[in-house]
Amino acid sequence: MSRIQCPRCQRPQSHCLCPLIPCLDSRTRVLLLQHPSEVNHALNTARLAALGLNNAELIVGEVFEDLPRLLNQPGYRARLLFPADDAQPIQTYGASDEPLLLVVPDGTWRKARKILHLNPLLAALPRVTLADGGVSRYRLRKAPGPGALSTVEAIVQALQVLEAPVSFEPLLRPFEALIEGQIAAMGEETFRRNHAGK
């Protein structure tokens, strides 16, 4: 018998995160393109980001037929948040800057690259990147390298820079509760043995 799920956050009703999900306005529009393999992931941080930001949209797929319309939002400059040699570091908006449509692929690095490969229009977008040295709070997964963040952490870091001094930290509350819940479920001893110090 399956547990009853919250229709909004899609967590089991007994572990619903909705009371922790903020309702934040942002000048930046966030477009999350989620690989289908992430949809049922226990730690679906892209969903948390989309639920917590009023100016965000989450679309699931590998090939996005509607991409031309999605990327041409009046009043926004589309930028892909993804590393590349020519990616520009994200910078705080100037007074007259047109806000960004921040396009964020969501999936493992391999799956995110596949999304870019299958959507040439996406791969052709100018890229922006986060400052080096971001440390993930995602204590349940070994990061593939320094600065590797979960999707919600990357979005928070990007918005904190773009829209400084506005704080988007509240977006991380449900994410941290999710991590704590996973650690509690596996037991502190198992967590220490398998994850602590990694």
TrEMBL record:
Keywords: S-adenosyl-L-methionine, Transferase, tRNA processing. Residues 2-187 form the DTW domain. Belongs to the TDD superfamily. DTWD2 family. InterPro entries: DTW, DTWD2/TAPT. Coiled coil: none annotated. Its EC number is 2.5.1.25. The keyword S-adenosyl-L-methionine applies. It comes from Pseudomonas canavaninivorans. This is tRNA-uridine aminocarboxypropyltransferase. The lineage of its organism: Bacteria, Pseudomonadati, Pseudomonadota, Gammaproteobacteria, Pseudomonadales. It is an enzyme of class 2 (transferase). The keyword S-adenosyl-L-methionine applies.
